[in-house]
């Protein structure tokens, strides 16, 4: 039997050739998974979207009632193990549910918060008794979950929290004092995971129940967007929490917080994908029916450019989301076979691909922002009116660049995690870096290369990776310990990595489609993939130039720039024609095809 292909480690794609093995694509969804997606779509159309105005007015009891209905359909406990009242579905199915519910505005936020940060801390870190007490009711939606980490003076710097916990003299309760802010679902949740420092130093997590003595909440916040999402402050004044409600180990609250964020970032990316698809479809329909100068505006080149760009970025995000979700799913399965408990396997799988989750969070939130902004532009003045859903989409999308760690923090984390893994020996950056340095002083190859429809794109991807290693290696060598403080440089390197990971994900998807269907040259998927790679080359060059110019000068700068230019060059490509082809096919289909 042939050997099983190696499952890539996190960030290993940066150092290895492109391979379609272990690359899951949305074209491979099982019939059952597509049925789940259709059920989600039907639920939104019949139960949620008709009530969207009432939801945004925070009508008392409405959001909890919708959560109850979602729970009855199994949507809130789909990936929870059956022993705790869930359906025990795989990670791909859970990701698909997040995507399918992502176009539901404030409801998608409430549902994602409940199934993610509201439930997972207890599921992954709770004692058997805590899991049996809370998870079955959270899985069905009978109890709603929330998460209390952020404080007025500690956002991204979560470990600087001021909320304290003191063990009482009897040793029966922790006494909590402090406040939390921006708590999603806070106004109606039954169960809260709250972080506090025991004795003012040991950052720990606690399970708080509504009604506990000394626990109160503030009024609903008035927000720019997601107005129907309950957002309040939580107050703890000598709040008595039973000692058995300490979650995880004392002083290990950061382990819970950071691990839950890994999964939350991918879940958010999936939700933004669903929101972007719905928004594109709204813009596409409007462009087909809105007439100016005696013709539908979709016939104008400027509108076709916008629609094609929106579809391209959605296609690429979709490719990256499910590529990563499959890796996490396979890693979890491998660890379960080794005898790891469910929670340990899931956490280790998510940690392995924490870099990719950070990339997806950034890209997903920025894709939805881009699509929403362009949709408003296509709607023109009507897009600025509350009578049209795109205005709500525009407002609601903005929070995603702040949720789950700001995009700036996630960009910094992306590079920081790669460098730390290299220092620990988990990634071999030294070998590839030395090869790139050697290549800089060698004569470049000009041969045509492999005779394959993907040869040119594969070569460009390999060069993109060299460009990242070139810039990152030079930054590490020149700045050393000062690099941590050079956030602008780190964020430029992160942008190079994001573009490269996305371009590779799209190309792998296209290559797999070719394996399954044969010749796909000239298809909409072909055009979208090549538009992205073509544009990525220039954007990677720009980010690399910005980074190098921040620390290199003179002959060093010239040599590095020569290498960067070599690694980001590309053949001519008629992107205008490709965009027009994409829009024509979308117009024919009537919506984004998946």
SSE blueprint and pairings:
Blueprint: H1 31-48, H2 52-56, H3 62-72, H4 91-100, H5 106-115, H6 120-125, H7 128-140, E1 145-148, E2 164-167, E3 173-184, E4 191-198, E5 202-209, E6 215-217, E7 231-242, E8 246-247, H8 253-289, E9 291-292, E10 295-296, H9 301-337, H10 342-352, H11 354-379, H12 389-397, H13 407-423, H14 430-440, H15 455-479, H16 487-517, H17 524-549, H18 554-568, H19 575-589
Parallel strand pairs: 1-4, 2-4
Antiparallel strand pairs: 2-3, 3-7, 4-5, 5-8, 6-7, 9-10
pLDDT < 50 stretches: none
Mean pLDDT across the residues is 94
Largest sheet: 8 strands, mixed
Instruction: Kindly state the percentage of residues in helix.
Output: 55-70%
Which CATH top level class of the largest domain fits? Mainly Alpha
Report Rg.
25 Å
CATH architecture title of the largest domain: Up-down Bundle
Number of strands: 10
The CATH H-level homologous superfamily of the largest domain: Butyryl-CoA Dehydrogenase, subunit A, domain 3
CATH fold description of the largest domain: Butyryl-CoA Dehydrogenase, subunit A, domain 3
Strand content: 5-15%
Principal-axis shape = globular
Count of folded domains:
4
What separation lies between the terminal Cα atoms? 35 Å
H/E topology pattern: HHHHHHHEEEEEEEEHEEHHHHHHHHHHH
Structural class: alpha+beta
* Helix count from the secondary structure assignment: 19
């Amino acid at each position: 039997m042939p050997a099983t292909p190696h499952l890539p480690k996190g960030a290993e794609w940066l150092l290895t050739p492109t391979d379609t093995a272990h690359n899951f694509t949305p074209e491979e969804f099982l019939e059952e998974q597509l049925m789940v997606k259709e059920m989600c779509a039907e639920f939104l159309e019949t139960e949620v979207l008709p009530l969207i105005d009432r939801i945004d007015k925070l009508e008392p009891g409405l959001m909890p009632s919708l959560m109850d209905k979602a729970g009855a359909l199994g949507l809130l406990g789909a990936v929870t193990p059956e022993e705790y009242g869930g359906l025990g579905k795989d990670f791909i199915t859970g990701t698909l549910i997040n995507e399918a519910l992502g176009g539901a505005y404030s409801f998608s936020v409430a549902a994602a918060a409940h199934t993610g940060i509201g439930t997972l801390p207890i599921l992954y870190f709770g004692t058997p008794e805590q899991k049996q007490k809370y998870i079955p009711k959270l899985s069905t939606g009978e109890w709603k979950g929330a998460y209390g980490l952020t404080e007025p003076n500690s956002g991204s710097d979560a470990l600087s929290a001021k909320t304290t916990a003191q063990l009482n003299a009897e040793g029966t309760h922790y006494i909590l004092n402090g406040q939390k802010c921006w708590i999603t679902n806070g106004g109606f949740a039954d169960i809260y995971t709250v972080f506090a420092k025991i004795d003012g130093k040991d950052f720990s997590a606690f399970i708080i129940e509504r009604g506990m003595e000394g626990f109160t909440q503030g009024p609903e916040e008035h927000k720019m967007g997601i107005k129907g999402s309950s957002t309040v402050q939580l107050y703890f004044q000598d709040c008595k929490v039973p000692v058995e409600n300490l979650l995880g180990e004392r002083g290990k609250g950061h382990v819970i917080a950071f691990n839950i964020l890994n999964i939350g970032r991918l879940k958010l990316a999936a939700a933004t994908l669903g929101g972007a698809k719905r928004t594109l479809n709204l813009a596409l329909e409007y462009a087909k029916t809105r007439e100016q100068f005696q013709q539908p505006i979709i016939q104008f080149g400027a509108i076709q450019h916008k629609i094609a760009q929106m579809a391209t970025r959605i296609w690429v995000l979709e490719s990256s989301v499910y590529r990563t979700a499959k890796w996490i799913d396979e890693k979890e399965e491998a660890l379960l076979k080794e005898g790891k408990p469910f929670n340990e396997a899931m956490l280790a799988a998510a940690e392995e691909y924490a870099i990719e989750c950070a990339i997806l969070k950034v890209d997903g939130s920025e894709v939805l922002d881009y699509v929403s902004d362009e949709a408003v532009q296509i709607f023109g003045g009507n897009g600025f009116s509350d009578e049209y859903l795109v205005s709500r989409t525009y407002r609601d999308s903005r929070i995603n660049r702040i949720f789950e760690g700001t995009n700036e923090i996630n960009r910094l984390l992306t590079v920081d995690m790669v460098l730390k893994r290299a220092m620990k020996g988990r990634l071999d950056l030294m070998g590839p870096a030395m090869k790139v340095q050697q290549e800089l002083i060698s004569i470049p190859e000009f041969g045509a290369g492999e005779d394959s429809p993907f040869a040119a794109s594969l070569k460009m991807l390999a060069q993109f990776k060299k460009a990242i290693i070139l810039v990152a290696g030079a930054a590490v060598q020149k700045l050393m310990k000062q690099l941590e403080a050079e956030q602008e440089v780190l964020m430029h390197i992160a942008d190079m990595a994001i573009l490269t990971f996305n371009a590779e994900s799209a190309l792998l998807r296209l290559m797999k489609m070719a394996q399954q269907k044969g010749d796909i040259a000239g298809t909409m998927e072909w055009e979208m993939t090549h538009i992205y790679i073509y544009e990525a080359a220039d954007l990677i060059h720009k980010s690399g130039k910005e980074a190098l110019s921040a620390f290199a000068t003179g002959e060093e700068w010239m040599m590095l720039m020569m290498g960067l230019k070599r690694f980001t060059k590309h053949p001519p490509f008629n992107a205008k024609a490709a965009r027009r082809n994409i829009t024509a096919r979308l117009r024919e289909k009537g919506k984004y095809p998946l």
